């Protein structure tokens, strides 16, 4: 109890948030936005003034503008990381400056960056969640210290009372069980923190492209279904939660592009993201093996993947499994191919590329499981429906591009269906001997049909 009490007494009565910007108007706007929050707000008009405040009093979270006269935000946050590594660091930028962002990530180890103009609710929620994360992390450290103290006390008692070991065996076993439970709880808390960070990471994506939650869920269920060991399960789930952290430096345009498009137009940027993710997480000792899986999850069975071009059993087994899970989810979100696939189409794709992209042994085990257990991700989005040509009605709006079986683009996303269009699509189906799946929006009123024609190439 004394250790816990001492740890609590060392904490400030209320958290402090330091805002740094050379524009007084920006500082005033941020102060007004945060004035009703349950923390103290401090402000500084330069990096030097911010460092002086940090020398005088503890600060839990700092938000710094990227571009300031003299010392810029990235340099300031790097100094904060060096002297006060436990302070949460957030970069506020009004420029699409990849170099500044990369510098802040690598040198300042920032936890998040926010673009100007910011969304008020998003900014407040970001600050709240990171302060909650810090509180949880402090509690974890307190419990670890308490566990170390208890272990030391147990060792001392064991040395002093060796003659009475038999009489005290039952009590010591009970204490050991409690410590095991405490250790399990600490591991669970760490996993929870990682998943919270993963959730924050996905906030840059539109709702239909937020994959992390589905990838984590599939990784956890596959690990349980195939009776993986505890260590393998932990590594796979941790890697699933953070597999796309290397995309944090991408701009908004890149975030919305599919891998198919980026590999044609921005191949170097896309091929670097697994390695960048591994580098960003390298300092986190408890997830070193998961970090390695993140760096290798885009390797392919035939050696055509990246970053190393490894093939077959050289690729770690869990990296091969993660590749299958990620592609299955991203195929249904339009992040792998330009065309969004349904669940069944994604399963066909996995089988088609077994022996090329994917380990055929794992495909033979995982795909039947996905056929039985994995939901169609479209079912999780209440605003979309997957319909056949016979089911669509005039006035419905396409939510995704429609391609023919040959791959030719027929209709663009946002197209309003008309009766002549629907009839022409039915004719195309007959000529191709195919069946089209149209993803339509259902949350908007039916609009007057547009009598345009499908795109032909």
UniProtKB/TrEMBL annotation:
<dbReference type="Pfam" id="PF13487">
    <property type="entry name" value="HD_5"/>
</dbReference>
<dbReference type="InterPro" id="IPR037522">
    <property type="entry name" value="HD_GYP_dom"/>
</dbReference>
<feature type="domain" description="Response regulatory">
    <location>
        <begin position="16"/>
        <end position="131"/>
    </location>
</feature>
<keyword id="KW-0175">Coiled coil</keyword>
<dbReference type="InterPro" id="IPR052020">
    <property type="entry name" value="Cyclic_di-GMP/3'3'-cGAMP_PDE"/>
</dbReference>
<dbReference type="GO" id="GO:0008081">
    <property type="term" value="F:phosphoric diester hydrolase activity"/>
</dbReference>
<feature type="coiled-coil region">
    <location>
        <begin position="133"/>
        <end position="171"/>
    </location>
</feature>
<dbReference type="GO" id="GO:0000160">
    <property type="term" value="P:phosphorelay signal transduction system"/>
</dbReference>
<feature type="modified residue" description="4-aspartylphosphate">
    <location>
        <position position="65"/>
    </location>
</feature>
<dbReference type="InterPro" id="IPR001789">
    <property type="entry name" value="Sig_transdc_resp-reg_receiver"/>
</dbReference>
<dbReference type="InterPro" id="IPR011006">
    <property type="entry name" value="CheY-like_superfamily"/>
</dbReference>
<dbReference type="InterPro" id="IPR003607">
    <property type="entry name" value="HD/PDEase_dom"/>
</dbReference>
<dbReference type="Pfam" id="PF00072">
    <property type="entry name" value="Response_reg"/>
</dbReference>
<keyword id="KW-0597">Phosphoprotein</keyword>
<feature type="domain" description="HD-GYP">
    <location>
        <begin position="186"/>
        <end position="382"/>
    </location>
</feature>
<protein>
    <submittedName>
        <fullName>Response regulator c-di-GMP phosphodiesterase, RpfG family, contains REC and HD-GYP domains</fullName>
    </submittedName>
</protein>
